[in-house]
Design a protein that fits this description.
single chain, 102 residues, alpha+beta, 5 helices, 12% strand
Amino acid sequence: MIESPSQAHGSAGPKAAFREWDQITDERFAVLKGIRQPILESTGVHDEMIPVRNSYWLSENLPNAVLLTYPDSGHGSLFQFHESFTRQAAAFLASDSSLAPY
């Protein structure tokens, strides 16, 4: 059974789990390399809950991912930049391409 970050760390919460997650090991991303579906990921460059470096690691290891990073924003970047995010997400979802770079 896979535990969510909050389950795995009880009252320490998700932030502690994400901090643990960013300790890199060779096996950490092995499963990600096998995921071939298109993935759209977005983050703010000043996200304190999930550091932007985690998003870069994900996009580096997901072979078919697009990463959107928004300046001067944190964890709620898709709300702060809702017009840009909505345009990008709509284009991504409307694409018939099997590749994430639509």
